[in-house]
Hints:
Residues about 150-160 have low confidence and may be disordered. Strands 13-15-14-12-16-17-18 form a 7-stranded mixed sheet, with helices on both faces. Strands 1, 2, 3, 4, 5 and 6 form a 6-stranded mixed sheet that branches. Strands 9-8-7-10-11 form a 5-stranded mixed sheet, with helices on both faces. The longest helix is centred in the middle third of the chain and has 23 residues, at about 160-180. It has 15 helices and 18 strands. It is an alpha/beta fold.
Amino acid sequence: MALLARYLLPARIITLRSRSKEGAIRELAGALSLEEGQVAMDEVNDAVSAREKIVSSWIGPGIAIPHARLPSLTGIQVAVGRSRNGVAWDSGDGDPVHLVFLIVSPDREPDEHVLLLAEIARTLRDRALMQLVLTARSAAEAWRLLVARGYGEQGQAPAASAKVRLSRLLFAHALSVAEEVKARAVLLQADAVGDLRFLEDIPSSVELILVTSSKTDFAAERPEATRILQVPFPTLNRSNQVELALLFAVSRGLLARGDTVVSVSGVPSSGYLDTLLVIDVGREFPTVFARSPGTPLADVEPQVLEKVLQIATDIAREGREGRPVGTTFVLGDYEQVARSCHQMVINPFRGYSVEEKNILDPSLEETVKEFSTIDGAFILRGDGVIMSAGTFLRPERAAPNLPSGLGARHAAAAAITQGTQSIAVVVSQSTGSLSVFKGGGLVMSLEKPGTSG
């Protein structure tokens, strides 16, 4: 953990009222709120002011770091003052300072004192960061920006260090935005950054949902504030990854209609975060909540939807025997769906026990992919049992407002979900894209896996 994060508390970041050096130092000495029995505010003020008379603590444009060492102190204390109007200081350029870091430390920790001074000076070389800290809307946001400065671990390559720094700054800003808009959670695309240790320095009261294509042990260190959402589709582009993560979060009850979520993402394996989105869950998936707001997936179990999407993604990417394949999966509300279907061929799943034909069984994957070449749809119960394949959908009426460019397979899938509580997943033979329908509408469209986004 950075030294500044260890010794600086958000409550000790204040807005300075005084325009004079003496007044600013007194305000910061008071902000330390030293516990009884340590050192008095006047003692801090006198020691720091005495040192200022010997040499100014101005270190560069807009920055001053007044400091002193006190024998009676039991530990290092730091306070930060922000002043948009500026504080008159004995500065080398004659201009006022806008950020003042007050540091007091005991005599027995001279090395730590020097290291902390050096860390702050190095951090504030970044003029853009200084401006962000100065204009931050709260002390908490300013604190996150400071401790998220991210120059990297010792010995880390400069390019990698810059990426970590960018990720820290964007994540810190995302937390502040989440608190301001009262977001239910922050959704972080872990595959973009890889190393998540930088999150340890940036605590937050907002729930964090990590989205990853593989398992991570990071949540074990913060189980009270972190959830892992595994989206095992690494070949999808990052916008599709975000969409799927939102859908999976809804299906698992992590997000609901009316929730706002802040998404932080980047290009998978790029090493840094670069995009922040504020998303209204209800507006993102209007058809999902249209008829069943309490249970948006009706009787479809979350793991069944996820498994179908995984198999559909494989079919879209691989095809069959080198040829593109199109197919449809209809999930849930089986009794109603069956009334609008008939078999085009002999049902290959007929006569098998429910245990032998559940799509959650990994041994069934290749069989499903092989049968995807048969014209017609797969019909599944909400618990994953495959009731039929090669099934013709004949809904009573067509779905309105179907996006242009979608063919008969998509139209039938949309229509079947309009008259039932089912969900339909369609693989396009011509484009390899995936479409998800519910309530007669298009929930999302995923580009062919492996294409750029």
